[in-house]
Each structure stands twice: as structure tokens, then as C-alpha cells.
Amino acid sequence: MEDPETGARTSDAGASRGSRPPRGGAGNPKANPKKRAPGHRSAGGQSRADAPQPAQKGKKRRKRKRGRKVFAHGANPQAGQSAGQGASQSAPVRRAGPEPARGGGVAQKRQETIRRSDAADQPVFAALDLGTNNCRLLVAVPGRPGQFRVIDAFSRIVRLGEGLSGSGRLSQAAMDRAVEALKICGDKLRSRSIRRARLIATEACRSAENGAEFLERVEVEAGLKLEIIDRQTEARLAVSGCGSLVERDTEGVVLFDIGGGSSEIALIDISGQRSPRLANHIVSWTSLPVGVVSLAERFGGRHVTQETFAAMVTDVANMLSRFDGRNRIDHLMDGSRFHLLGTSGTVTTLAGVHLGLERYDRRRVDGLWMDNASVDRMIEKLLGWDFQARVANACIGADRADLVLAGCAILEAIRRVWPSERLRVADRGLREGILSELMAEDGVWRRSGRSGLRT
Q1: Non-local CB neighbours of 185 within 8 Å, separated by 6+ positions
Q2: What's the rounded Cα separation, in Å, for the pair 398 and 1?
Q3: Which tens digits make up the pLDDT trace of 41-74?
Q4: Mean pLDDT of 328-345
Q5: What are the CB-based long-range contacts (under 8 Å, 24+) for 205-208?
Q6: Distance between CA atoms of 327 and 284, rounded to whole angstroms?
Q7: Taken in order 163, 238, 83, 98, is the CA torsion positive or negative?
Q8: Are 263 and 256 in contact (CB under 8 A)?
Q9: Alpha helices in 277-429 (DSSP H)
């Protein structure tokens, strides 16, 4: 089962629609030493103008490079200061859109050679997030300051927390599914020279009686040593991964991550001087011990009536009422510079249904703004669909059809505590936060050199 949000079908976090400057341009005159100004003569006295073939090849090569897509994640929105590196390695990675071949198979092979050469000297970083519902991996190289470029990704729905709320233990079938997915991740990581990686496990492994035992099995069978992070770290990483979606004129944000077994909520005050790291502005946070899997298992997820949905909303609202710090940014909520920012399968699914997508498209969903009326309509639409209708929708599918309304109930409870006219949708989160922090700690954006990164 591949995750319809971020799996092999889509590229990860933030495709840049700009093109990078050609290597042979004025900014890099050494990139093509054979290229000379018109009328230049070689040692043998022949004018380069009399030998057009090499010049034409140089021109075509630059054109190919201008057409490449660049994938970038923004931990720091202060981008645009350097061209960065524009090519990914030749790993089997999906791009934001198909790149047409130029000149047939020979041209494609040449282009792949250029990509490998461009990325060969880049340090590689990796982030793995094993959650209650999903197993996700990102592998990336640094781009221009505050950004990075994904070169490989993996996402699969494993439902590790299935049955956990009732038994308190991870089931054998759930552990087997997760281990198989983690074996794939292990193979991907071992196939590359990784400078730094962080591999985390969240609520399912945190709360399960046999969580530590399961991670020992993962180390033996998949060759991966996972770290169980606490809820505060999980909330901080979610904020770090979404920094570029908070615009400069924003003063207050409630960021929420509706997971499978828990939901993290961070209140962010950026009304004063803003630092490059959004996580520095968290003034209050909480982690609710409820997610789409656990809530659906308690109330039922396949057949959800209006009464069942209302009961789920009330249950979550009661949890939120015990959050002492929930009023910390009330003074910012009246203005237009306050909004909600959601990062989870729930909000990306709502966005996909709202757009009427025939197939989930991350490029159209990530960063989408939805107003209050649109969110209301989408929740009402999903409540009006039976289970089979939800299964038939391309943005939901069989893997999420019994979970999406539980997610909507959590979202509705959040909206009632922090009403906002606008919700921004993020198809990014923990993995992007991990990569941003790893690269910042490693200092890759402070160094200059062959990677082309600016200090």
C-alpha cells in the first residue's frame, strides 16, 4: 500500500518553478572552456566562427540545463540568494512533472550524466519518520541557503498503531508490515553515502508496551536503529518543516499535525522580530493523545453519522479544554495576519477533494489556502459520502476511507478553539523538519565551495 499523499507518485515538498542559470553563462565562464567569444582564434589560427559544431553543442547543453526542475524545501523563507544546485542524482525519484526528452535516447543519457556530475560532490542527508499510520523516508542534498533538494523518497501506509488503543500493544501483523517497509528504507539508505541521518519513531512506539521490543526487531531485520522522540520534539520538528509556508507579514499561527495516534499543536507568535527558525517562536504547545487511527477505532470510521461525528468533535474538544496554554496568542487572532497551518493527511485530503483532483497532486496541494467556507463545505461533503464513495475518491482511497472523518473531527475541534478565516495546507512535516535541522547543524549553508552554496 503506497501512501497516496507523498509516496512514489509525487515529488516531495516544494517544487521550484524557476530555472537555474546555465553553467556556461556569464556567471560561470569556466564551465565550458571550449566556448569562446566570436572571432577568437585557436593556437592553429583558425577562427572559432569557422567551426560552428562545438558552439552548437554548448548551446544545446545550456538549454537542457535551463529546463530542469529544482526541488527545494524551505526551512528559511529568505531564499533567492544563490543559484544552488539544480540537478538531482539519477536515483529513481519522481519529479514535479515529466521532463521531456530532447533529442531522443542519446540526449537523455547525456542529461543523466550531467545530473550525476552536478550532484556527485553534494553531502547527502536522510530523514525517516515511522508514525502510527505511515512509514516515510526522504533523502536530500542541500540547495541554496535554507533549502534542500530531494533526491529519493519513500512513503507507505503501514498502520503500525492498528489495534493499539484497545490492546496497548503493537500487533504482529502491524509490526510485520512496518518491518517490510523499513527494509526498503534500509536498502535505500545503504545504497548512498549518507553524511547525517535521523531516524525517528513517534506515538505508536512511544505508547506501546512492546514498542522497544519492536525497535530491537527493526534493528536486527532492517538494519536501522530508530529513535523514539518525545512529543515536544515532534511538535518542534513539525514547525521546522513548515517554516517557508509562513509568510513574512504573518503575526500568529496555530500549526497542527494530526497524526495516527497523537496530534501535535504549536502556537507561534511572530509579531516581533522574526528569526530564521520558526520553531524559536513557539510560545505554547500540546500533544493530544488522539489521532485518526485511535479516534476511528473508538468511534468507528467506516459508517459515520452526524451524531457520531459530533461525538468525536466533543471528545477532542474536551482534551483541548485541558490545554492550559491555549490562550497564549489570543491577542493576535482578530487580525488578518493570523491563520491556521495544517500538516497531515486530513488537511491534504480535504484540499485534494476541494480542488476536485482526479489524482492527488502534491504540487497543487502544498501551500494551498482554504477559507472557512471551503473547509466547512468539504467536511459536509465527506460526511454525506458513504464508505464506498470515500474509497472511490482518488484523494482518499481504501487506505484512508475509514480514517478521514476522524481527522475531520480533530480539525473541527481545533477550528472551534482557534477560529480563523484562513487555513493553509502543508504537504510536509517531520521529515522536512529533520532535514532542515540536520543541514543547519552541519553548517552546509554557511560554507561555500564546489557545492555552490553561499555563506
Answers
A1: 128, 135, 137, 154, 222, 224
A2: 10
A3: 443 444 433 444 444 444 444 444 333 333 333 3
A4: 93
A5: 205/130, 205/160, 205/170, 206/230, 206/231, 206/262, 207/164, 207/168, 207/261, 207/289, 208/161, 208/164, 208/168, 208/169, 208/170
A6: 9
A7: positive
A8: yes
A9: 292-299, 306-321, 345-355, 362-365, 372-384, 387-392, 404-417
Element at 113 (helix H, strand E): helix 104-119
Residue 65's beta-bridge partner residues?
Answer: none
Distance from CA of residue 309 to its chain's centroid? 29
Express each pLDDT in 342-373 by its tens digit.
998 999 999 999 999 999 999 999 999 999 99
d(CA 110, CA 160): 43
Nearest to 261 by CA among 128, 134, 76, 81: 134
Region at 295 (left for phi over 0; alpha for psi -120 to 50; beta for the rest)? alpha
> What would the mean pLDDT of 156-160 be, rounded to a whole number?
95
Mean pLDDT of the chain: 79
Q: Please provide the DSSP assignment of 154-212 as one string.
A: EEEE--TTTTHHHHSS--HHHHHHHHHHHHHHHHHHHTS-EEEEEEEE-HHHHH-TTHH
pTM for this prediction: 0.72
Distance CA 363, CA 13 (A): 8
Residues linked to residue 199 through DSSP beta bridges, in sequence order: 128
- pLDDT tens digits, 216-263: 999 999 999 999 999 999 999 999 999 889 998 999 999 999 999 999
381 contacts 302 by C-beta, under 8 angstroms: no
Neighbours of 68 (CB within 10 A): 17
Alpha carbon of residue 246 to chain centroid: 15
Q: How many CA atoms lie within 13 A of 134 on its CB side?
A: 27
Query: Using N-to-C axis directions, what is the helix angle for 404-417 and 345-355, rounded to 10°?
Result: 100
**Hey, how many other C-beta atoms are within 10 angstroms of the C-beta on 115?**
20
